[in-house]
Amino acid sequence: MMQNSQPPTPPKAQTRQQTLQQIPQWLQKNLFNTTLNSLLTLLCLAFLVWVGYGFWSWLAQAQWTVITANLRLFFVGRYPVNQVWRLWAVLGVFVGMTALWTVPQFMQSVQSQRVQSQRVKKRIQLVFYALLPIAFCAIAYLANGGLGLKFVRTSLWGGLFLTLLTAAVSILLAFPFSILLALGRQSTLPIVRWVCTGYIELVRGLPLIGILFMAQVMLPLLLPDEIRLDRVVRAIAGLMLFNAAYLAENVRSGLQAIPKGQTEAAKALGLNTIQTLTLIILPQSLRISTPAIVGQFISLFKDTSLLGLFSMFELTGISRTILSQPDFSDRQTEVYLFIGFIYWMVCFSMSQVSRKLEKQKA
Hints:
By secondary structure, this protein is an all-alpha fold. The protein contains 15 helices and no strands. The protein is globular and about 65 Å long. The protein starts with 10 loop residues before the first helix and ends with a helix.
């Protein structure tokens, strides 16, 4: 009796074969199910082919020497060449702190497999929070100088370095301030609630460029002559005050999503108000509002492009400086495409980190 010697098809190959067989049915159902939809599909395809052909033709004749010749300006602005090693040190501190913050998140995902202990994760988190102010001072010292290091004026800071610095510091300062505003808006004390509500509603009703104008132009006129705040500090203060109001509303939405029964249960267990907030209410509300908070962080990063209007040479400001050179005055497309790619890379990375955090905390 003869037996069939043909080996069975692997499950993955069967799934791929079924998917290929379903493609014509999906096209028929979603794109060509009626005459009108078929015409719209063909028009869209023709438009995409036209745009793709035009972009490819431009890409073939683009002159990228404007990028390669000014690469240092794009990344560090006019920072002295012999002091650039300090920015590499700043990058090392930032990467180290990011790795220290990421390790507990990774351990949380592995912990479900019973590989790491909760105690080790808490110790790493304590080390991170203890080193955070030290890292902040080290970054400021390395970037600015002093105590043996040559001073580098902030007017020489620029490019991607200035963009990331203003965005990161504004985010770090705006986040705790927004939590205080959100808690104050829900406070039972009328004065605290009115002050926080008034601040949030006032700032949300103003455009960001108006706040930056007040910080950069009007504030020096109002301060005494003895007090001169650096323009980078004023820019960070403007961005922080503006975004804290929006972040406060995002945090408040998370607070309102927590059932009141949890607060009553915490009080029944003997927890005081601070313990209830820090151990029960805030962790849950921040987890709920994580997508909105990260969206505001991404918006803040993109808002740094407005600093170029006040003669600060961040990415868009340094781009205008490069385009003012006679050799590169007609290379706007290449320059703005390049900095647009940098903005997209940073924003996409932030959104991916947000998605990973949501999955781990779900």
